[in-house]
Amino acid sequence: MSRRNEWTPEDDSAVAAGVLSGRTAREIGEGIGRTHRAVSVRITHLRKAGSIPKVNITSAEIAAQEAVEERKRWKRAKKRAFADKCRLDAKGPSYAARMLGCSVREVRELLAECRKLKEQDAWKDKRTRSCSRCHKVFTTPHKCRFLCDSCNSYASSMGW
Ligand SMILES: [Zn+2]
Prior knowledge:
This protein has a two-stranded antiparallel ribbon with strand order 1-2. The longest helix has 22 residues, at 104-125. It has helices at residues 9-20, 25-32, 36-48, 59-72, 76-88, 93-100, 104-125, 149-157, and strands at residues 127-130, 137-140. The chain folds into 3 domains: 3-48; 59-124, no CATH class; 126-157, no CATH class. 62% of the residues lie in helices and 5% in strands. It is mainly alpha-helical. It has 8 helices and 2 strands, in the order H-H-H-H-H-H-H-E-E-H. Strand 1 (127-130) and strand 2 (137-140) form a beta hairpin. The radius of gyration is 33 Å and the shape is rod-shaped. The structure holds zinc ion (ZN). This is GcrA cell cycle regulator.
C-alpha cells in the first residue's frame, strides 16, 4: 500500500471534524488531498468503527428545527395565534420564541397585538344602534339601552 493511500490519524480526525461540521465528502477531500470517493468510503469505515457518531443530532431534533424554520415563514396572524395558544397553555414567552425562531421581545409584541385585536373584537360585539330619541348611531355594551350617552344622561337628569 502506498503512503498516499494510508489514512493517518490526522486524516481521520479531519474527516470526522468535516462530517460533524456538515461538510461534504468532496469538500473534506479537497482539504486533505483525496477524492470525494475515497473520503466517502473512509466516512463509512469510520462510522462503522464508531469514530464518527452515526448522527450528529437526533432525527427528532432535526424535525424540531425544520418545524421552527417552517414557523418562521408563517404569516403574522398565524404566529400571533400560536403565541396566544402558548400563553393559554401557560408555556411562557421563551418557549413560544424558541418554537417560532424569534426573540422573546417579538413574542411579547405578538401577544400585545393579539390583546389589541381581541379588544377590538369585544368592541364589535357591543351593540350598535340608533338612539330612539335623537337617532344618533351609538354603541353600547348594554342590551337594553336605547338612548345615546347624551340623551341617556339628559333622561337621567329628568329623573326617568
Ligand atoms: Zn340620543
